[in-house]
Each structure stands twice: as C-alpha cells, then as structure tokens.
Write a structure and sequence with these properties.
three-stranded antiparallel β-sheet, four-stranded antiparallel β-sheet
Length: 246
C-alpha cells in the first residue's frame, strides 16, 4: 500500500477535480438519441483538449476507449459504440479515470436518460446512499472491511445484491493499486492509515449478484438480466477521518 504525502495528495486532488468536471460537463448531453460513441468523444475532448490530461482507461490492458459506458443490465466496463443509442428510460453509468502529472483519479456516476422507471431510479438512489452509509462507520472502525460489510448491510435491506466479482482499489501514482476494497462482507484485517487513497465503487443489482463477461472481453452484465447501478468516489484517509476527493 502506498501512503501519500501532502505533495502527492495535491496532485491527486488536481486529477480528482478534472474527473468531477468531466462528469458534470457530460450531464447535459445525456439524452435519448445520443450514442455512447459520441459521449466518449465529448469526454475525450474535455479531458485531453480542455484539461490537458490523459484518459486513464484508453489503452489500459488494451481497452479501446476513453471512458466506460454501462447501460441498464451492464454492470461495468461497457465499451462506447456509435451504434449504441440511448433510449428514454435507460440508466447509464459513466466511469472516468484520468492521468495528469503522472497521478490518477477515478470516479463514476449514474445518469437518467429521459424519465427512468420508479424501480430504476430507486436502485440508483440506494446505490449512491450505500457509499455514504458505509463512510459514516469509518469513525467506529479502522479496518477496511467495514466498508463492504456496511454496504452489503444497507442494500440488502431493499432486496438488492452486491456484485462480488469487482472491487474498489488504491489509486494515486498508478491507476490501480493495493488495497482492494471489497463491497460485501469480508474479514480483511488491513487498517486505514492517514495518506491512503482508494476508490469505493459498489455495483448493486436488483436481482442476483452474479455476472457474466461478454465476448468483447470487457463488457460485464448481470447474469439474470436485471438492472445494475454503480457510483464511484476517490477517497482520502485523513487524520480526522476521510475526505471525498471526487
């Protein structure tokens, strides 16, 4: 695990502010009729030409695009495509990581396309709230395992399930670092330390937690075809607790 000093953290904050800006900037374009390929191009231009940064996903393990766009029953890592057109009622996760000054930050959020169903909207709200529910318990436990335990506890109240196959991660000088942040009940004995930076990014399904990877090697879908939602924040551990950087 990397423990970052004040200089490092300042650079990570710069990267985090870029990610925040791009996720806010793209919101006005999320409408029925736009393709995920076009969304990718808009985000790429904002990252590269406006912020003079680099999309962390582009070329990472041969990933072909600058962002991930995951619609409805796509859990994560959906590849943008000009033939994939958003429809009224869709929900979409846009996941953006960037690199600048050789530091990284990563965040994602859900967007409603037109008017979503009551069921889809509720899923997104509960998924978002689960992050903050877990964060509230950091002051009671210094073990990383508290995050997953509390996220699972919260979402299962509503009959939802937590994806087990993917997790949060340390981030800073590399896109993915230790520790891994599980979003379900676990017995990890790693303790928080001031200067740790990592992501929390629960993927929550209406149905079964099991997933399947498509033939493109990236796109992950729910095994039962149910809706899935995800939010992601980059978190810094401080001497007073934590700070959400994104």
């Amino acid at each position: 695990m990397k423990i970052y000093n004040k200089k490092d953290i300042n650079y990570i904050i710069i990267c985090s502010n870029i990610v925040k800006d791009v996720l806010l900037f793209i919101k006005k374009y999320i409408k029925p009729g736009i393709s995920t390929g076009e969304i990718n191009d808009i985000c790429h231009d904002r990252i590269v030409n406006y912020h003079k940064a680099y999309p962390a996903s582009l070329g990472y393990m041969n990933y072909p695009k600058s962002i991930c766009t995951s619609i409805n029953n796509v859990v994560c890592h959906g590849i943008p495509d000009y033939s994939c057109i958003l429809k009224n009622g869709d929900i979409i996760n846009i996941d953006i990581g960037i690199r600048k000054y050789n530091y990284y930050s990563d965040s994602s959020r859900m967007y409603f396309v037109g008017k979503p169903s009551v069921e889809a909207k509720k899923l997104c709200i509960i998924t978002y709230k689960s992050i903050f529910y877990a964060l509230n318990f950091l002051k009671f436990s210094r073990k990383i395992s508290i995050i997953g335990c509390k996220i699972q506890e919260y979402v299962e109240r509503y009959g939802y399930s937590v994806v087990r196959d993917y997790c949060g991660h340390g981030i800073g000088k590399n896109f993915h670092e230790f520790p891994q942040i599980l979003h379900f009940k676990n017995n990890c004995n790693i303790f928080f330390r001031k200067g740790m930076v990592f992501t929390i990014e629960p993927m929550i399904n209406i149905g079964c937690y099991k997933t399947i990877v498509m033939n493109d090697g990236w796109t992950v879908k729910t095994l039962d075809g149910s809706l899935s939602a995800q939010y992601e924040h980059t978190i810094l551990i401080t001497d007073k607790g934590y700070k959400i950087l994104t």
